[in-house]
Design a protein that fits this description.
Blueprint (H helix, E strand, L loop, with lengths): L2 H21 L9 E8 L8 E8 L9 H27 L6 E12 L3 E12 L2 E12 L11 H5 L10 H25 L13 H5 L6 E3 L5 E5 L12 E4 L2 H7 L1
Parallel strand pairs: 2-3
Antiparallel strand pairs: 1-2, 3-4, 4-5, 6-7, 7-8
Amino acid sequence: MTAKLKGFIGSFLAICMIGLSALADPLVQDMDWTGSVFIPYDQNQAGPGYTWSWQLPHMDEADERAHLVNAFYEYFLSDSLNNAVPLMAESLAEAGIPVQVALTYQKTCNNEQFISFLFSSTETAGDQTSVIYEGHTFSLEEGMPGSTLSLPHLLGFLNSQQSTDTWLESRQTEKANQLVRSLVYARITENRELVLNDDFSEETLEYCFFPELDFYLDENSNPVFFLQPGTVASEEAGRLDFPISLSELKDEW
């Protein structure tokens, strides 16, 4: 092989490696989608109403994978403004108490495989404030535009071809839920510093903890499951996080 040919092959491989590296990069973030809407309880006069403000991630569309995330939040915002927000304002109109809800997020994971966000929805009604959390995780390798990553897919117990089998997905989701609930229950009862509500029991987790929804990924792509404030302990305890590695979950499965 001539030196000239070796040099050509070396340059070609270097270009290929650069291309592969670029494809494996984390997603680049563009300017967030932000805004606010106010709906008065009485459309005929000035007065109290419902205010909803939002901060949603928007990824740089120069990367074709950005559509996996952006499509989800485009639909989420449209559906919220056209349905959820007006319905919420209507349900609060009779009470007449001004309510402000602020939706914000933090990015918890962004690598070549996944991107994950933890959202907080802070509601202020009079002198009362409450926070609800929600996690969204997307696969950058096998994701579908507008769809978050399900827990069975994350654990590797379903692949993209099996996602059309609703019976199998439902069955695997319930198995995953039961597994995570049992692990979280064990950690709760082992934590002697946590003051639990008087009515707490293992059954409590069945109606207040939904592992397939209540998780986000940490920087190492391991799931962190969480309980909403006040569900098993006092509101003052805040959100309760339970990091559980993928390897532990797969071993327990």
